[in-house]
């Protein structure tokens, strides 16, 4: 996938909607009855990148504080949604060790790799930080995960919603339909090409998570050290 073209396409499609104050808002963000859970393999940006992201979000908060902003603890990059969140899924339904074994096998020869976070884009429901991998390590890992889980008998939903190919990080979701578009869109345009920094991905996390990856609801199942894989 040409990531730059994909992010640009999202931006060009969504910007006219934002300029009219039209967004897709999620009524379940604050719903205590939301019981959608799943299993995700993810990476986390380093602290410097997260600080740059929070500086950006602080400016948006000043004009629309009512929306949902990802705190540092929740900012992530999805490597693979292994079991997409669905109502009623519980950790007791699977054996985490079996998932860890498959992932470990897929990591053979995968070295630490860098993600460059440059610019923002948007969808009707959220604002995203654009991520650009320096090489094909992430692509290779995802293809291995697809092949190994599809060949296994383990429960998974890889590619059933969509085939993940990007390296973005979602940082804002719309929780209400009221958007101050006259002040929001100029601000977003100002950050369209901002450099948020680089992260070397040398560690991955397998987590049991809710739809929004909220830290208080996330359970760490395993941590994988790519430096170990390199050795």
Description of the molecule:
The mean pLDDT is 95. This protein has one domain (3-230): Cyclic Phosphodiesterase, Chain: A (Alpha-Beta Complex), CATH 3.90.1140.10. The strands form two sheets. A five-stranded antiparallel sheet has the order 2-6-5-4-7. Helix content is 32%, strand content 29%. The protein starts with a helix and ends with a helix. It is an alpha+beta fold and 231 residues long.
Q: How are the SSEs ordered, and which strands pair?
A:
Blueprint: H1 3-19, E1 36-43, H2 47-61, E2 68-69, E3 77-87, H3 96-106, E4 113-123, E5 126-133, H4 137-151, E6 169-173, H5 181-190, E7 195-201, E8 203-210, E9 219-225, H6 226-230
Antiparallel strand pairs: 1-3, 1-8, 2-6, 4-5, 4-7, 5-6, 8-9
The SSE order reads: HEHEEHEEHEHEEEH
- CATH classification class: Alpha Beta
Number of helices: 6
Helix share, percent: 25-40%
Biggest pleated-sheet summary:
5 strands, antiparallel
CATH third-level topology: Cyclic Phosphodiesterase, Chain: A
Question: Mean of residue pLDDT?
Answer: 95
Low-confidence stretches are none
As for the number of domains, it is 1
The CATH level-2 architecture is identified as: Alpha-Beta Complex
CATH superfamily: Cyclic phosphodiesterase
Number of β-strand runs: 9
Structural class of the secondary structure composition?
alpha+beta
Give the overall shape.
globular
Rg over CA atoms? 18 Å
Termini separation comes to 30 Å
């Amino acid at each position: 996938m040409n990531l730059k073209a994909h992010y640009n396409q999202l931006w060009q499609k969504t910007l006219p909607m934002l300029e009219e104050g039209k967004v897709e808002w999620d009524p379940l963000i604050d719903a205590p009855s939301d019981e959608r859970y799943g299993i995700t393999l993810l990476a986390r940006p380093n602290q410097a990148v997260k600080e740059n992201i929070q500086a950006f979000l602080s400016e948006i908060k000043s004009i629309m504080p009512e929306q949902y902003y990802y705190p540092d603890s929740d900012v992530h990059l999805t490597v693979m949604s292994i079991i997409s969140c669905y109502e009623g899924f519980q950790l007791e339904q699977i054996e985490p060790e079996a998932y860890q074994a498959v992932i470990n096998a897929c990591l053979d020869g995968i070295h630490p790799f860098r993600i460059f976070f440059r610019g923002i884009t948007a969808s009707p429901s959220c604002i995203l930080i654009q991520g650009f991998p320096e090489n094909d390590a992430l692509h290779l890992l995802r293809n291995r995960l697809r092949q190994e889980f599809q060949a296994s008998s383990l429960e998974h939903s890889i590619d059933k919603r969509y085939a993940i190919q990007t390296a973005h990080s979602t940082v804002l979701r719309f929780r209400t339909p009221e958007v101050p578009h006259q002040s929001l869109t100029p601000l977003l345009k100002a950050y369209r090409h901002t450099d948020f920094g680089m992260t070397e991905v040398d560690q991955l996390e397998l987590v049991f998570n809710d739809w929004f990856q909220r830290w208080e609801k996330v359970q760490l199942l395993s941590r994988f050290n790519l430096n170990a894989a390199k050795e």
